[in-house]
Amino acid sequence: MTNNFDEETYWQIATRQMSIVTKEEQEKFRNGKITVIGCGGIGGQTIEMLARMGIGELILVDEDVFDLTNLNRQSLSSTETLGLEKSEVAKQKVELINPHVKVTNYNAHVDESNIDEIIGDSNIVIDALDNILTRVIVSRKANEKRIPYIHGAVHGTLGQVTVFLPNTKSYEEMFNLPSLGKELTDEVIGELKNVTSGKPPVIGPTPNIVSCLEAMEAFKILTGIGRVTVAPKILTFDLLDFNSFTIEEI
Fold this sequence. Notes:
By secondary structure, the protein is an alpha/beta fold. It has helices spanning 7-13, 23-30, 41-53, 86-97, 115-119, 132-144, 171-174, 186-195, 205-223, and strands at 33-37, 57-61, 102-106, 124-127, 149-155, 158-164, 233-238, 241-249. It has an eight-stranded mixed sheet, sandwiched between helices. Helix 3 (41-53) runs parallel beside helix 4 (86-97) and helix 3 packs across helix 9.
């Protein structure tokens, strides 16, 4: 392949999936802009898959740096990236995989003061987070902007994925969170933090499977192919039991 990444090279990269989508459908994906909040266990592989499938633009957000505890699962982590900003490493990886992707990264803590600017005019927001408070902030803003919000979460060998749309149950409604219908006061924030305690256990394959599922849901939304798992339905699984893969309704 030539080192000159022109129009032809984009389609060479996408060649193997072009029997699955039409050129018009792939163009829809290419014109898409996706914000991924979190560049770690779930986010890293989600970002990589989106780049490989040919997304047009990515907004990557994470306030953290890589450390040794990330090596068991986070595809962007290595002994060479220890101490480096996750969002910056993610940006560099995307540029190496597919130079056609426009990438903006934020090494920032997401809160109510900056989430509007971060999401901007994205077509999709992907949750690759590990805490409920930030999920509430992000899901509220996505709903306000009428942007599909793809949720993914893991615990040990358990994983789940669903998509929240402006006309579906919200993230807070579906999981009956104590913040539902309330302002995020210190008291409500404290209640959200009490919903879960500590960092959940996790093994490598779990977040990476969730990552690929989230990336595929984004692909389906933008191209219009396939059936999206929309709330209140949710895809759940336990990697200790392959018969557990199921779509249920909450």
